[in-house]
Every structure is written in structure tokens, then in C-alpha cells.
Design brief:
The protein is of the alpha/beta class and about 300 residues long. The protein has 11 helices and 14 strands. It folds into 2 domains: about 220 residues, Rossmann fold (3-Layer(aba) Sandwich), CATH 3.40.50; about 70 residues, Alpha-Beta Plaits, CATH 3.30.70.100. Helix content is about 35%, strand content about 25%. A hairpin with a 2-residue loop joins β4 and β5. It binds adenosine-5'-triphosphate (ATP). Adenosine-5'-triphosphate (ATP) binds next to α1. Keywords: ATP-binding, Nucleotide-binding, Transport.
Length: about 300
């Protein structure tokens, strides 16, 4: 799936400004941004509910305007607000959507069994949707998106309003769907919620893309490329001076409350392996060392602007 130079205005007001990014086939790709950033607008363009005013949107190579019917067979869109069919049972609800996709009655029964088993809701088939918890309703919403066996799932804030357990269970279902070969594009306000789950992430703010790529690349701070973090055993003596005296070390600062240090070094005089060997031979037990990576929240705050749009 890809957006190329997409601009979208509502009554003259720009909601998306030359937005371009790619979601690889088979990936679980996160879409993160604060309120009003343009996430729902982008999702609506991909799922053909809105037409691009400028730029191109493609789903597995098919243009959403030129090949709208084909695109619709390939996608499943779960909006952020659950539909109003609350007085239907789970079974009636799914049967309704399966019929809308043109599945004959016998096939519908089969498909409903399959999608409910994927989201582990077979035992609630005859319950009214209004009587289900938010987490269960989300599962039914996901089952609904799966009835036409789409290749691309577009999920708008599926985890909002879920308790931590329901969130974790939802993430497990999404991982299972990815392993079945589905491409999943999922939006959220919260970067850390998606970081564990996703292969890649796109960050949008005020209608502009701020980052699109692997989460690891987002966390590697280019300014800190030559910095390692060391954690010594709790209760160790202050190590700043010993660290600073290692040849090639530019600075050594405390990091956090415990015995953690950020050590910046000059790559022309010392490489990371040599630094680790020197630090380990200081005679103070070393608990861990790692590349200094920016915290997710820090990265997100750097890339987005304060205040609601
Ligand atoms: N139908 C509409 N008419 C006018 N303006 C709209 C409409 N839909 C969205 N907007 C505006 O477009 C901008 C982007 O909105 P969008 O819903 O795409 O953001 P979002 O990232 O999904 O936000 P949220 O996280 O709050 O759902 C916002 O400024 C919003 O007010």
C-alpha cells in the first residue's frame, strides 16, 4: 500500500499535505500521530471512502480511483467508532456483512465460524452486541473485517478504550493475522503501544509525515551514534572519573537513578568493542551495556508539535 504526494483539504483547510509513505506487503505497520494529525483521513483515502484530491493512493499496485472495485475486495476497514448495529446478535451482524459481500448462505455459516474462531468468540455467537464488553466488541469488529478475507487490514485505533489485558489479547490476534500473511496498517495515538507489535511505523503530525520506517531507525539518535550506555552493579562507587580516563572517551555522565552511565567516545580513537572491553576490565561488576537509544516518548515528542490541532 502506498500514498504518493497526497494532499487533502476539508473546506479549504489542509488535513494532509503532500503525504507519501509505503506499507510493505505482509508487514504490521503502525500509524501514529496526535489528535487531528490526519490519520483517519489517510485511512479513509486508502479504503476508498474519500477520493484523493491530489496525489496517488495504491493498494498492492492498484490505484484506488482507477480500480476502486478491485481495491475494495482487497481491504478490510475497521473504523474507530463501532457501528450502530448493537441490537443484532454477533451472528446476525456478521451474516449481514457476509451477505453484503455476496457470500451465499452456506458459505456464510462457514466463514462466520472461521472468523469467530480467529478472534476466539465462537461461544458468544448468539449474544447481542450491546451486551458485549468493549474488548469483545472490538473482536467482533475485527471478525467483521475478516469476512471477505482481505489482504490488507486497515484498523483505526483498535486498542482505544481497551483495558491492558484486552489490548495484549488484541495484539496477539494481530500477530496471528500477520503470520497468516495479512498486511496490517494500524493507527494509534500512542507510539509505545505499537512499538512492540509493529515492524515499521509512520509518524504523522499536522498533516505531514515526520518519519516512516523501521522502529529501530526511529530510536537510533544520529547525534548519539557514538554513545554507549553502561549499567554497573547496584551500589557501585561513582564511575564517572574512571570512565572519563579511558583513552578515547569524550564524556561520561550518569544516566538515571541507579548505576547507569552514558559514555560518549571518539570513534577515531576507539571503537565500541574496545570500549566495552576497557569498561569491563575496570574491576567493577558490569550488569549490562547497550547502544544508547532514544526512548520512544522522547522520539515522538521530538517529531510532533505541542497542542491539539
Ligand atoms: N469531515 C471533516 N470536515 C472538516 N474537517 C475535518 C473533517 N474530518 C477531519 N477534519 C479535520 O482534518 C484534520 C485531520 O483529521 P483526522 O480525523 O484525519 O485526524 P486524526 O489523526 O484521525 O485525529 P484523531 O486522532 O483525533 O482521530 C483535523 O484538523 C480535523 O479537524
Amino acid at each position: 500500500m502506498s500514498l504518493h504526494n497526497v494532499t487533502h483539504r476539508y473546506q479549504g483547510k489542509k488535513a494532509l499535505d503532500r503525504v507519501s509513505f509505503v506499507v510493505e506487503k505482509g508487514a504490521l505497520h503502525g500509524f501514529v500521530g496526535p489528535n487531528g494529525a490526519g490519520k483517519t483521513t489517510s485511512l479513509k483515502l486508502v479504503c476508498t471512502l474519500l477520493q484523493p484530491q491530489a496525489g496517488r493512493v495504491r493498494v498492492f499496485g492498484e490505484d484506488v480511483v482507477d480500480n476502486i472495485r478491485k481495491v475494495r475486495t482487497m481491504i478490510g476497514f475497521m473504523p474507530d467508532h463501532f457501528s450502530t448495529y448493537r441490537q443484532m446478535t454477533v451472528n446476525e451482524y456478521l451474516d449481514f456483512f457476509a451477505a453484503a459481500y455476496g457470500l451465499p448462505p452456506v458459505r456464510r455459516t462457514e466463514v462466520i465460524e472461521q472468523v469467530l474462531s480467529l478472534v476466539d468468540m465462537n461461544h458468544r455467537q448468539n449474544d447481542l452486541i450491546s451486551g458485549l464488553s468493549r474488548g469483545m466488541q472490538q473482536r467482533v469488529g475485527l471478525a467483521r473485517v475478516l469476512v471477505n478475507d482481505p489482504e490488507l487490514l486497515l484498523l483505526d485505533e483498535p486498542a482505544s478504550g481497551l483495558d491492558p489485558r484486552a489490548r495484549i489479547e488484541l495484539m496477539d490476534i494481530l500477530r496471528a493475522l500477520r503470520s497468516m500473511g495479512k498486511t496490517i496498517f494500524i493507527s494509534s495515538h500512542i507510539l509505545s503501544e505499537l512499538a512492540e507489535l509493529c515492524d515499521a511505523v509512520t509518524i504523522i503530525d499536522r498533516g505531514e509525515i515526520r518519519f516512516s520506517g523501521r522502529i529501530g531507525d526511529l530510536l537510533t539518535n544520529p547525534q548519539n551514534r557514538h554513545t554507549l550506555r553502561f549499567e554497573f552493579a547496584p551500589g557501585s562507587a561513582d564511575m564517572r572519573e574512571s570512565l572519563a580516563q579511558i583513552e578515547g572517551v569524550v564524556s561520561a555522565d550518569k544516566s538515571g537513578e541507579g548505576a547507569g552511565y552514558r559514555v560518549e567516545f571518539d570513534p577515531a580513537r576507539l571503537d565500541a568493542n574496545q570500549l566495552v572491553v576497557r569498561v569491563a576490565s575496570l574491576g567493577v561488576p558490569l550488569v549490562s551495556f547497550s547502544e544508547d537509544r532514544r526512548q520512544l516518548n522522547e522520539a515522538f515528542m521530538d517529531l510532533t508539535t505541542a497542542g491539539v490541532r
